[in-house]
């Protein structure tokens, strides 16, 4: 496949997995559209890539947690042929339902669910016309069970997983591959943003490992990919135990 003129749009490219995805796609000769709120971070990433790669990089500073964000972003890149859409931007909030800020929770649900869904719909239309495209949605191992302490975050990722697997089936006939990546704990800014104080993140895989894994799985045409052997085993094993037990194990792990 000639990747010289392919373009990847990455949401949440200013840190963590999204930032490393920008480097991986750049190394593989993709032109890039990088989206996040922190423009200066995106500029730094662009500068770093430009030292090594002569690809085109467009930066879009945008808050994707507004109800009309997806349409705005789509309009901003109108006319560009986006071959790969990566819905990576997302965040979590740690705390019992009664204790978390309701406005932050609303923003999280808009970003993790609404923006991801509408971006997928809008860009898929062009991909259908082109009879070609990749959509990569970043879910989580939290998608596979209820997680007390992160109830709505985990539920938002269950949505991402189920939505993505369903449309992977629908879009296959148009030669569009939808790949859902399920990272476990990964060393990024995620834990700080979510206010999680857990040692698990210190020894967790790096964002670079996740980004390289994501690229490989996309290229293989995978539908659902869980990162890491332990995560894969735990996810598989949870199919055979009662949901109530899975919930209490998840609750203990969050403590
Ligand atoms: N790290 C983990 O343990 C883990 C595990 C499972 C799944 N995930 C998922 O992996 C994805 C990437 O997260 P990460 O771990 O790389 O965390 P991260 O380092 O905090 O990166 C999150 C990215 O999302 C962007 N973002 C957040 N809110 C946004 C908004 N309102 N508008 C636009 N962009 C926004 C951030 O950019 P700005 O702040 O500059 O806007 C940042 O670039 C998320 O979907 C997360 O749920 C992470």
What does the model show?
The protein has helices at residues 16-27, 39-52, 69-76, 102-130, 151-171, 190-194, 207-220, 229-237, 243-254; strands at residues 7-11, 31-36, 57-61, 84-87, 133-138, 176-182, 224-226. The model has no long low-confidence stretch (mean pLDDT 96). By secondary structure, the protein is an alpha/beta fold. The chain starts with 6 loop residues before the first strand and ends with a helix. Helix 1 (16-27) crosses helix 7, helix 3 (69-76) packs parallel to helix 4 and helix 4 runs parallel beside helix 5 (151-171). Strands 3-2-1-4-5-6-7 form a 7-stranded parallel β-sheet, with helices on both faces. It is 49% helix and 14% strand. It is built from 9 helices and 7 strands; from the N terminus they run βαβαβαβαβαβααβαα. The chain has one domain (7-254): NAD(P)-binding Rossmann-like Domain (Rossmann fold). The chain binds NADP nicotinamide-adenine-dinucleotide phosphate. NADP nicotinamide-adenine-dinucleotide phosphate binds at residues 12-18, 36-38, 41, 63-65, 88-92, 111, 138, 140, 183, 185-186, 188-190, 193, 207. The site of NADP nicotinamide-adenine-dinucleotide phosphate (NAP) has 30 residues, from helix 1 and helix 6.
Question: Short description, anyone?
Answer:
The protein has 255 residues and is of the alpha/beta class.
CATH superfamily: NAD(P)-binding Rossmann-like Domain
What is the name of the CATH topology?
Rossmann fold
Q: How many domains, in number, for the residues? A: 1
The counted number of beta strands is: 7
What is the strand arrangement across the widest sheet? 3-2-1-4-5-6-7
